[in-house]
Amino acid sequence: MHHELDVVADPDAVAGTAAAFVARLARACVQAHGRFTFAVSGGHTPWAMFARLAHEDVPWEHVAVFQVDERAAPDGDPDRNLTHLRQSLGAAPAEVIAMPVNDADLDAAAAAYGRSLPERFDLVHLGLGPDGHTASLVPQDPVLEVSDRPVALTAPYMGHQRMTLTYPALARAQQLLWLITGADKREPLSRLVAGDRSIPAGRVEAAASLVLADAAAAGRSPARVGSQSRAGP
Length: 233
What we know:
The protein is α/β, with parallel strands linked by helices and about 230 residues long. The chain has seven helices and ten strands. The chain has helices at about 10-35, 45-55, 80-90, 105-115, 165-170, 185-195, 215-220; strands spanning about 5-10, 35-40, 65, 70, 95, 125, 150-155, 160-165, 175-180, 210-215. Pathway: Carbohydrate degradation; pentose phosphate pathway; D-ribulose 5-phosphate from D-glucose 6-phosphate (oxidative stage): step 2/3.
């Protein structure tokens, strides 16, 4: 898997560059086939990106937002990715297809969510943990070996069981967009771009991949990178 790496100064620049990238891609996809399918992970950087998207030209009425992963927690819980996603979207009229993590039968709910997924995603956003995890594909979890379904459940991780897209679902992405910030991501970032499949993130495959990282994650001085990126879809 080849990753295009784009390094900008700081998390704010990552959020702004990502927002401009998403907006351009959304407009192009809606013009080409009438809809923009976008799967989103949790984390502070993507929420900041959505806040910046509010100031971009996005055809929201033709945007469908899916979740990459979600904690099994009540509606409105601050641990839920959906809570922050909805706050970040504000009044934007995007369709949000939420993971049904409150259903009594989570296995059936995961299967139903899998059936709701598109045959391809125009864009999938991913983050990267210090341990090399992405989505809720974490080291040692049996979910890493699930290949027969697009959505599966994890073992409990940091206090919650989670629902996550599996590698086959992530492979439906026409474009991946990784948002990676912070010095604690330096080692996993270097392993990701080197194609190290021993970390969960290194096993993700898709048609194309752009990694937007800040200077701290890339191990560079902020003064030696631009505050804005030239990344384009």
